Amino acid sequence: MTVDLWCYGCDTTLPAEKFSMDRRRKRGRQSRCKDCNRAYAAANRARKAEYDRNRYAENRQQIRAQHQAYAEANRDTITEKKRAYYRENRDAFRDYRLRNSERRAAQRREWAERNPEYATQYRAEHRDRHREREASRRAAKRGTQVADVTEPLLVQRVAYYGDKCWICREAPYEHLDHVKPLSKGGPHILSNLRPACAPCNIRKSDTWPLETGK
Known about the structure:
Layout: E1 4-7, E2 12-15, H1 21-25, H2 34-43, H3 45-58, H4 60-73, H5 75-88, H6 90-99, H7 101-114, H8 116-141, H9 151-160, E3 175-178, E4 193-196, H10 198-204
Antiparallel strand pairs: 1-2, 3-4
Helix pairs in contact: 7-8
């Protein structure tokens, strides 16, 4: 049985499919159809954006907690949807990044300046993942062997060396070093990655083979 609802935006009775699911549940109340909702949103975009910014500023911690709780409860579903969407729109993503690289970099810097505590926390939590991605990118550009090195595997690899530099065996690790450098044809695979402190890694550079003296 088809249920018709009245839209107060266009003053028309329309099938329920023309309304969002939330509006259908509230069919005893006044509501707008999807087309009227889109038109209203377009006409009031600036006002809505200002309202959202003020609401977020006043309820930052509560909103972040809600988002984090939802993300944790639906992590696998969200990840799969994002991957599927990216696969379907890979070329569009690439073109967008190329066209807006400078603007996106400026936005990231501006956000980090406004939120220094979150920026510092994010960098600390994702340091290894970003370094692994950058190393993977450089390896792929040089045409060397590239394997899917996941974050859990990197954590295990670093723990195997006691979270210490594999060269001096004393300083805490800061970098992920390719034992055989990428520039010398070294592969980007787990067995060629070891933790290194910044001074040792910089001093080693692209030396191959490396004599540690220990």
